[in-house]
Amino acid sequence: MADVESIYQRLIAEIKQIALLGSCASVLGWDKQTYMPKGGAGHRAEQLALLVGMIHERATAPQIGDYLTEIENSDLVSDPYSEAAVNVRELRRDYDRAIKLPRSLVEELARVATIAQQVWREAREKSDYALFQPHLTKILDLKHQEVCALNTGETPYDTLLDDYEPGETTENLTRVFSGLRDELVELVGAIAESGKKPDENILTRTYPINQQEEFGKTAAAQIGFNFDNGRLDITTHPFCSGIGPGDTRLTTRYNTHHFSESFFSIMHEAGHGIYDQGLNDEYYGTPMGSSISLGIHESQSRMWENFVGRSEAFWTHFFPKVQAAFPDALSDVSERDFYAAINTVAPSFIRVEADEATYNLHIMLRFELEQALIDGGLKAEDIPGVWNETFEKYLGITPPDDTQGCLQDIHWSGGGIGYFPTYALGNLYAAQFFEQARQDVGDLDAQFAEGVFEPLKNWLTEKIYSQGQRYRANELIEVVTGKPLSHEPLMRHLRAKYEPLYGI
Ligand code: CO
């Protein structure tokens, strides 16, 4: 019989090959959303389906289960945070989830979701929830079947959460979100009552696209995104694709009459990209060379977009540059007014357009609804009513129709239930990491004001990026900051920013 070390090497070699197949699919997926001509859609779907099938077959091969079993009982994994132990722990998790789901269920979910997304687009356009509702009911039924098949012993909603944020629980989220919600509703209310309204019109003047691209790239490079190992292209819905070592693709969209739309989406995606570029190449394809969770990934995009990119110190350095890049739009604007405009807080209906403060309330509403749908017996037909009622309670306004209410997001139509909380987790993790970085790295504001971002990036690389999946998200936050996740750092950040801006 082969010794454990060589079994482990065989397992890793196979896992790396599966990852290479996955990265081929990533290139095709990136191309589909950037340069592929419309007519190529059918052929591309076949290419992707072939790759997905090959990946599934190899990832669920009994051989992998056998390798894992042999290694699990050996000394190789006796230290739970060693490279081998981490890889085996996470590969076991992925393998068990993959083999527990019957192929028929996976295919049925994919089929139903494809149709549901088409219908959702039409329903959103017509603001006709009744059109979408039977499809959502089907999706919810299939998600219940998925929970039964996975049979994790957790509550159904926890099982779904685990897909996006391994180890996260409803109980923990409820603890953190409920503290955040009360203080946030109060802060957003006080901002509204302050009567102060920054002049947002300065952001909707004319911003030529070529200059937007150049300025966005300059800022992304300066905060630490490496363009020798990455690109920036145009798409409808901005995303970042970490294709593999030396190749991280960012995308954005440009609007001549909106500065923030592309600039902050470039900063956001560059944040995701800096994380991907900071992963340890030596471990590529294995859990030790992979990002931890959607919540931690989002913490990095939010950190570079909001905690850095919307900070006063950042614009101390960049305002003269943005003014020089867009003289027609900004020559008569002061740094103070520009900073206030990019930090406007106002309740709005659409999540993706929400500001840094109100955004989290949009997520808590979805978290409550998802829980009620999965664990609490809420029916799909009751969603619009409950949505609008909760929205009014949190944000003080009622959506005029379902397009601006419960039909706005694509997630549920694609079977993505349990995904939304990771967005708010991203903000919470970002705040707690950032507070710790301030303590460890020195005066970040003074550094940003000089256009220096490397000390922060190096700290994040050491503490988070290079660690791969050594820790689960809820462990990592304790390892790095010494405390479990709390809503307090985020509230401290929001108060420190908005109280002086709004004079409250
Ligand atoms: Co993101």
CATH topology of the largest domain: Neurolysin, domain 3
User: Which small compounds were modeled alongside the protein?
Assistant: cobalt (II) ion
Shape: globular
Overall mean pLDDT? 96
What are the main properties of this structure?
504 residues; 21 helices; three-stranded mixed beta sheet; mainly alpha; binds cobalt (II) ion; globular; Neurolysin, domain 3
Task: Kindly describe this structure.
With 504 residues, the protein is mainly alpha-helical. It folds into 2 domains: 2-151, no CATH class; 170-201 and 291-502, Neurolysin, domain 3 (Orthogonal Bundle), CATH 1.10.1370.30. 64% of the residues lie in helices and 3% in strands. It contains 21 helices and 3 strands. The protein has helices spanning 4-32, 41-59, 62-72, 83-100, 103-126, 129-150, 156-164, 170-193, 209-223, 259-278, 294-308, 312-325, 327-330, 335-342, 359-374, 383-395, 421-441, 444-449, 454-463, 473-481, 488-502; strands spanning 230-234, 240-244, 247-252. It has a 3-stranded mixed sheet with strand order 1-3-2, sandwiched between helices. A hairpin with a 2-residue loop joins strand 2 and strand 3. The model has no long low-confidence stretch (mean pLDDT 96). The protein binds cobalt (II) ion. Residues 268, 272, 298, 301 line the site of cobalt (II) ion.
